[in-house]
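Subgroup meeting minutes
Present: P.N., E.W., G.H.
Scribe: E.W.

1. P.N. recapped why we're keeping a running log of single-chain structure predictions: easier to compare across weeks, and new members can see raw inputs and outputs side by side.
2. G.H. added today's entry (140 aa).
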Amino acid sequence: MAETIHVDIASAEASLYSGEAEMVFAPAEQGEVGIAPSHSPLLSRLVPGEVRVVTGKGEEIFFVSGGVLEIQPAVVTILSDVAERAADIDEAAAMEAKRKAEETLAQRQKDEVDLAHAQAELAESLARLRVLRRLREQKR
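Output recorded in log:
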């Protein structure tokens, strides 16, 4: 039996995952982080992207809009304002959010919109779509 690490993933609305994993991958600010059991302690901000939890039964994929990653030797905690299982992502809504963010960025010189907000919306939409693509590849 492989060594495991306990993983908790929660959004502002709900706990999405609580269980054991052999490996966890998360989108830290510095780049993707691979977390194995007995990992050194680490605290990092997360960027929009996918969290992969590898268990003996396969891999579970989640979307996070950003948030905080805390790693202790026996526990990984991921807290995000918005998080969802990849299978629950609404592709049409993500495509529409991407379209609106791109439109807002294109209009920025005319309307003087909040550039950082539009860029964040675009990054989040693109991350959701990448998570959906990964899920589809996994099912093949």
